[in-house]
Amino acid sequence: MRISRKILLCSASIVVLMAWSTSCRKEPASPVTTYDSAYKLTPYEIAKPAHFPDMFIPDDNQPYVERIELGRMLYYDDILSNDGRACASCHFQSHGFTIPGMINDMPVLSHVNLAWHGKFMWDGSKTGTLEDVMLFETQEFFATNLEKVNKNEKYRKLFKQYFGVDYITHHEIAYALAQFTRTMISKDTKYDRYMKGVERLTYSEEMGMRIFFSEKGDCFHCHTAMITTDGQMHNTGLDSIYAKEADKGYYNVTKDVDDLGKFRTPNLRNVALRKFYMHDGRFTSLEEVVDFYNNGVKRVKNIDPIMTKEGKENGLNLNPVEKQQLVAFLKTLTDERFITDTSFGKPSY
Amino acid sequence: MKNRIFILMMAVLVVSACRKEKENVIPTPTVGDLTINLGYHVDGEQLLFDSLRYTNAAGNMYSVTKVHYYLSRFRFYNRGEVKYSSDTIIYADAAQTTSFTFRSLPATIYDSVSFYIGLDEAQNISNSLPATAENVNMGWPDVMGGGYHFLKLEGHWMDSTGKLGYAMHIGKNGFLVRSGMKKGITIPGGKTSVMKLMMNINRWFANPNTYDLAKDGVYSMGNAPLMKKLSENGEDVFTIE
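Output (structure tokens, whole complex):
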């Protein structure tokens, strides 16, 4: 009797404790991934410029000072390629991270504010996050020799410390490059300072801005305020015959005839530093570009509807002064700080 | 004696553990949720992008490449009295599935609903919406009055010379589209009801103003008379299914 009473008591207390613990248990905290518990990474907060869209950063590649620095090292290191090239070989900081030349008959798109892009390359053939496009760069574009990278004492040590891996793969290289390129933000042009109310534009620049952001120039529908690109694909009437494969643009991705001649809206920050314009570099000055939009637009079937305003079917019909004003405004998009910021420059070690 | 104290303690534990559940017992739910799904058609035919297959009231053959817009200020009525209101702003892209839910509507029968296509003066302020890529792309330049586009309806159409583009853009205070419709909507308590709001693209070109792309023009932005026409036509572009 005494034993059975004890058993009863014991059972009752177990049931009671189970009930209590079930009712009061808190959800366990999300597991925190630390790549190398021996090395403490320093979180980095990327400051989003005012009125820029929100930036997408994948949960598994949140910014850390050390990883950004590692990405910068890789960006400038020809170890990524097998022919002596680094990212920086075609992306000069002094030119807004493009080059004063062309590669494969195409101007190199600038590495600026890439964090806000969802489509990459002139023809939008690469989509996704910065991590996705950097994976393409290391895996396919450079075809990085992983053995070479893994034999490098410095990288083996740093990747172990910052990513916790014993063997470096394209994945970690892409993630480190994405960390660095995500910080390459232009936000201090004269236009930015004007928008903040801390600097005035000249009369000519301001008139140019009014042309840019009104129906007179109608640049803003694709080159949206502040960020200067809508990230979308457009046919702006550059060609009526798509002679070269590259002229077909987005069609080469989708095989949809309505996408013939469509290209991704380029970012206009530091546009005055470029030497070649359009997907094939056919224009070599901003004046030539404005001339095209003024009276050289071809009325092709799939031209962007925005380009078909009555009386402006072949261009904007700006007078010479207005064209100069538009160019003057475009030159306010040069970001001296961006092209001289040492944190984007080649590491000294 | 010890055993009795132990049992008593256990009983207290059980009671304390279970008290919450007892307190959370809700009698009859007095509110319900309403999910609204947006859909698109052209006079009953499902919208197909980039296809020159539609004809508007003026006889223009046209296609649609873009429909971006805002919905705002939803109001649900019973006998002329607002029973539920929401100031949530919905951005919609007809190329994407858009669905949104209003929470905790009083459980009752509503006889009509109203909303704006666009943003009223209090909401139509530059950079006031969250800086998403969509909102940034919908910006209406400050030099043109500021705020946001209410609607971007774009595509191509056939004139006598061939395929041309059109861009029906509405924005700026004074051109808000006020939409409303009588429809019995029952919201049962404790449940989520579903309603489909369908936009008939052809209605933008008709009633009360027949919009002829050949005569009226293909580009409305910055053109007050054209935006007014579209805004008036927009009042009945939506129906509830």
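DSSP finds four helices and 14 strands in chain B.
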